[in-house]
Amino acid sequence: MPLSMMGIGEKSIIKKVGGKEETKRFLENLGFVIGGTVTVVSSIGGSIIVNVKDTRVAIGKDMANKILVS
């Protein structure tokens, strides 16, 4: 399921990072790597705040849809 579908406080493993090569590289540099753990901290409007690699990152829902978790 896409990261944008996760509930607040839910923890998941990143299975796939999609999008164009440039987008994938950008997300991987933020810490969204396959096998990594991600937790949703909050979801307000069109943004999601997640905890990834002990860092809080805010991304738009369009970017969050490119990150598949389980």
Fill in the keyword field for this structure.
70 residues, alpha+beta, 2 helices, 5-stranded antiparallel sheet, single chain
Structure description:
- The chain has two helices and five strands.
- The protein is an alpha+beta fold and 70 residues long.
- A hairpin with a 2-residue loop joins strand 3 and strand 4 (55-60).
- The longest helix is centred in the middle third of the chain and has 10 residues, at 21-30.
- It starts with 10 loop residues before the first strand and ends with a strand.
- 24% of the residues are buried.
- The model has no long low-confidence stretch (mean pLDDT 96).
- Care to count the β-strands? 5
Instruction: Write out the strand line-up for the largest beta sheet, numbering strands in chain order.
Output: 4-3-2-1-5
Shape: globular
User: Which band does the percent of strand residues land in?
Assistant: 35-45%
**How big is the Rg?**
10 Å
